Amino acid sequence: MDIFLQQLINGLVVGSIYALIALGYTMVYGIMQLINFAHGEIVMIGAMVTITCINLLIGAGVNLPGPLLLLAGLLMAIPVSMLLGYTIERVAYRPLRRAPRLAPLITAIGVSIVLQQAAMLIWGRNYRPFPQILPTTVHDFFGAAITDLQIAIVILSLVLMGGLFWLIERTKLGRAMRATAQNPDVAGLMGVNINTVISMTFIIGSSLGAVAGVMVAANYDQAHAYMGFMIGLKAFTAAVLGGIGNIGGAVVGGLLLGIIESLGSGYLGDLTGGFLGSHYKDIFAFVVLIGVLVFRPSGLLGERVAERA
Amino acid sequence: MQSKKQIITFAALAVVLAILPWAITGGFENGKSWLRAVDFALLYIMLALGLNIVVGFAGLLDLGYIAFYAVGAYSFALLNSPHLAAVLPAWLMHPPLLVMLLIAACVAGVFGVLLGTPTLKLRGDYLAIVTLGFGEIIRIFLNNLDRPVNITNGPQGINNISKVNIAGYDLGRPIEWFGLKFDTVHLYYYLILAFCCLIIFVTLRLQRSRIGRAWVAIREDEIAANAMGINTRNVKLLAFAMGASFGGVSGALFASFQGFVSPESFVLMESIMVLCMVVLGGMGHIPGVILGAILVSITPEVLRDVINPLQSAVFGERLFDPENLRMLIFGLAMIIIMLLRPEGLWPSKRRAREFHEHEEEAKA
């Protein structure tokens, strides 16, 4: 039983990170019908900038408690990611807004390659360890172990998601975003500045991505120039699982994928009598995805989209 | 080939293609590695044409296409290496080339249908992510099927794959003909070129056939195509199977040329690269796709040679890691080409016109 609980907790932690990243994908998709392939790289750069910043502060002899150092790093990483997200949209996507659908997909892949290689040039090809600044107290939770960091990750994710819901449902910007998602041309006629709304979407999504990147790095104690690819892929899978374009769907999909993966890797060996080991956990995620999409072709919470001309 | 002009162009092209390997090995210092790159470019042309059927003709976005290349490569590897020789019946081992390629095409085609069947109802990006997942599933299986029963030999891959043997000639050994020494790279150049031409011919004929027109109809409007009496389910499955079998043939040739296969050759990035070839060149337009495949596969190789002299010229020293810098430039080139020519480098006339119509509508 405690193994089950342990896997559930691990899954919840990873899942809430997936959900944060998936929100970035789904917001952009909802508004522009574009898979923002470069989002994973923004997550990676958020993690890298934070680590560098913390190391610089420690190197400069700044004596602050760990969480404050982390906060300082985050305060550096978030603006960098926002700027990056804004620039990417401005340079690579905006000129192609009326182009065939696959054209911005290719520029997105191009941006992703450029960011990966640039990160390799800046930070080198080795794993960057996450500085040991956070307390590692382990709490006992009904027989399962949970660390301060894990609790912080889950709570912070929930707060950020709550904030995003509030932003989208209750503010003027949120209303403009929903209107643009429904129909950009009509929203424009109603006085919504589409360009600003899209830029803001990228900026918000990128800042969530940066926070998620730091969570990944802290959770796995390391970061790497290629880490954005896999985590981005998983998060995108989560967004599709929940129904892409749907904010609630991204959260549900992210949490679900994290938990499925964690339980899957824990029990896959037992279930198949040792035939399939835990290294098949990535398959588990994709098989579940395909299974869900066969029965619900637009994801768990996605609405049936009418045929677009 | 109706007019005289076309015949002349065709003949000139044939002569150029026949002389090309000798020009490369004779003209460059490390000519053999360049010719190797050209051989790979030919394999990529086959892949790009196969994906073009799925993405360009039928309009189904496939991000896991490299899985079929992998299936073809592994079918060739298993039947032509000592790895499973003890288990498989002897009559199955080392089949003649054409039989082998037929097997590879069929196995890959079956996998294409396997992928196609559950995804028929999906549209656009949902399809993209499922195909992507399918590609990853295949790769993960190749990576892990070394236990409990060793089938794919896991991450180490399969070694000692024998070269193709045609009419008693072993392509693994140099052959002397008319005073010319044909090395393995030369021989494979002609072999791959032959199949590449075959695939180009098949694609050209397919495009103008009833099936080809049905694919385009589905791409433009699936509901209308259905209403016109096209069996969209079968035609879509056929697109998947056809595209996959091209990938399978290309993969089989790859395995025998390389002599070694491992799951590392079939990562998601490869699928994305093939998609880039199709889109950069001009989706749905066969000459465009060929151009895209050549550019995307050769450019990184050219950059590999050019990058260090370039760095020294610009900065006066080697400032950056050449490997990263070259991919960085490649990524930038992709962005710039798409920004300047969103319809691809060499689109079909119809598509280019459609695209500019949109532009005019937007302006109006």
UniProtKB/TrEMBL annotation, chain A:
Superkingdom of the organism of origin: Bacteria
Membrane topology field: Multi-pass membrane protein
UniProt keyword list: Amino-acid transport, Cell inner membrane, Cell membrane, Membrane, Transmembrane, Transmembrane helix, Transport
Record Pfam families: BPD_transp_2 (PF02653)
InterPro entries reported in the protein's UniProt record: ABC_transp_permease, BCAA_transport_permease
Compartment(s) of residence: Cell membrane
Entry coiled-coil feature ranges: none
Transmembrane residue ranges: 12-35, 42-62, 68-88, 100-123, 143-168, 197-218, 283-302
Similarity comment: Belongs to the binding-protein-dependent transport system permease family. LivHM subfamily.
Protein's recorded name: Branched-chain amino acid ABC transporter permease
Organism expressing this protein natively: Jeongeupia chitinilytica
TrEMBL record, chain B:
Chief subcellular location: membrane
InterPro entries: ABC_transp_permease, LivM-like
Molecular-function GO terms, alphabetical: ATP binding
Membrane topology of the entry: Multi-pass membrane protein
Pfam family, one: BPD_transp_2
Keywords, alphabetical: ATP-binding, Cell membrane, Membrane, Nucleotide-binding, Transmembrane, Transmembrane helix
Transmembrane segments: 7-28, 40-61, 68-91, 97-117, 124-142, 187-206, 237-260, 272-296
Subcellular location: Cell membrane
Highest taxon in the source lineage: Bacteria
Protein name, UniProt field: ABC transporter ATP-binding protein
Phylogenetic placement of the source organism: Bacteria, Pseudomonadati, Pseudomonadota, Betaproteobacteria, Neisseriales
